Amino acid sequence: MNIIKEDQESVFAMLAAVLWLGNVSFTIIDNENHVEAVQDESLINVAKLIGCDAADLNLALSTRKMRVGSDNIVQKLTLSQAVETRDALAKSIYAGLFEWLVEQINKSLAVGKRLTGRSISILDIYGFESFERNSFEQFCINYANERLQQHFNRHLFKLEQE
């Protein structure tokens, strides 16, 4: 795939950051119903791996900044909100890394300078979604799932017949 060493190291750093984020814990500040991240190895390692200061990461995980009119308001988070924020950050890092990796794989499979040709796409067809109101997009997804299931069944039955 020809991913340069620096990019490989960045991939490993982001994966490590996601893993360390899962270990970040919070402590409740007195009886004020808000939290701060515990200043331990987990928080420090995540900060180093993503390239920010531990104090800034603590602030990002334990507060929410909102703009109301021309004023900025900082809201302190509860324990459940801070845990959700931590988990959302981990998911965001992982999703961005995953998209980047798929893009790099597709670039390595590209024919010449054209970006057409062979590619890898990922389709999750486990189960069908049924909402009270389905959108056209959901209809297309369900239709594609049905067609893939039909193709699989035909292929499997053909193999059984032979």
UniProtKB/TrEMBL annotation:
The keyword Transferase does not apply. Pfam families: Myosin_head. One of its GO terms (biological process) is actin filament organization. GO terms for cellular component: cytoplasm; membrane; myosin complex. Gene3D superfamilies: 1.20.58.530, Kinesin motor domain, Myosin VI head, motor domain, U50 subdomain. Residues 1-162 form the Myosin motor domain. Signal peptide: none annotated. Belongs to the TRAFAC class myosin-kinesin ATPase superfamily. Myosin family. This is Myosin motor domain-containing protein.
